[in-house]
Amino acid sequence: NAGVTQTPKFRVLKTGQSMTLLCAQDMNHEYMYWYRQDPGMGLRLIHYSVGEGTTAKGEVPDGYNVSRLKKQNFLLGLESAAPSQTSVYFCASSTPSGRYEQYFGPGTRLTVT
Amino acid sequence: AQSVTQLGSHVSVSEGALVLLRCNYSSSVPPYLFWYVQYPNQGLQLLLKYTTGATLVKGINGFEAEFKKSETSFHLTKPSAHMSDAAEYFCAVSPPSGGATNKLIFGTGTLLAVQP
User: Fold this and answer.
1) Which of A17, A53, B32, B72 has its CA 20 to 30 A from that of A80?
2) Would you state the pLDDT for residue B31?
3) Would you call B102 and A40 a contact, using CB atoms and an 8 Å cutoff?
4) Best residue in A99, A103, A108, A109 to probe B by mutation, most B CBs within 10 Å?
């Protein structure tokens, strides 16, 4: 089992450019999440999905879009990158119960110049 | 709304000393509680969790935490720190009624340094 994988690991964008971050999980989890981590702010939820074809907004969704076309994949898109989106992005997945932990990917470090 | 407070963004201990990382939550209903650890340049890894039952929970690497409802706390402890414990630690809560989304609310993290 690879668990949760994220592609790419690092990326540098210029302001206004677009990109897509890919998250894949092989644990057959229903739920998937995208977080951003910034110094002193912990992890903040961007978007999440409770199943294939469904997505919902989290705490900080502005400037991001997501898609869950396949159960195992969850894509995070930045249509027009801004310096404020410089962050480390983590994907996670879980079974549909609050009793169970979320499993995290290794992260993508994104810098927008 | 639920929230999580971690007192002390930086904690430094000597090798062999007690580790105590504090976590308090605000919730009208006792939530599910988690501690995650993040080693440098890695993702988050579950240390331990409390859902129901025994309030003293043991996790990996010798860590444990005690759920105290009266104090709305879930502090993380380890009797003797090792150099390898140096990492950032996050407390998180999930409301018991949140099964429809299983969303976690994270604290801002505590960076643990272990001095030789």
Assistant:
1) A53
2) 82
3) no
4) A99
Closest CA relative to residue A89, chosen from A21, A45, A36, A32: A36
pLDDT digits (tens, 9 = 90+) for B6-50: 999 999 999 999 999 999 998 777 788 999 999 988 899 999 999
- Report pLDDT digits (tens) over B70-96: 999 999 999 999 999 999 999 999 876
Please name the member of B9, B49, B99 whose beta carbon is closest to the beta carbon of A40: B9
3-state secondary structure chain A: CCCEEEECCEEEECCCCCEEEEEEECCCCCEEEEEEECCCCCEEEEEEEEECCEEEECCCCCCCEEECCCCCEEEEEECCCCHHHCEEEEEEEECCCCCCCCEECCCEEEEEC
Is A106 part of the contact surface with chain B (CB cutoff 8 Å)?
A: yes
> Can you give the pLDDT at residue A17?
97
Tell me if B43 and A48 make a contact (CB, 8 A cut-off): no
What three-state secondary structure class fits B116?
Answer: coil
Check A58 against B106: CB less than 8 A apart.
Answer: no
Q: How far apart are CA A16 and CA B17, in angstroms?
A: 50
> Which chain B residues in 30-59 lie under 8 Å from chain A, judged by CB atoms?
31-32, 34, 36, 41-46, 49, 51
Minimum-distance CB partner of B43 among A48, A100, A105? A105
Distance, in Å, from the CA atom of B67 to the CA atom of B37, rounded to the nearest integer, reads 18
Residue A83, SS3 per DSSP = helix
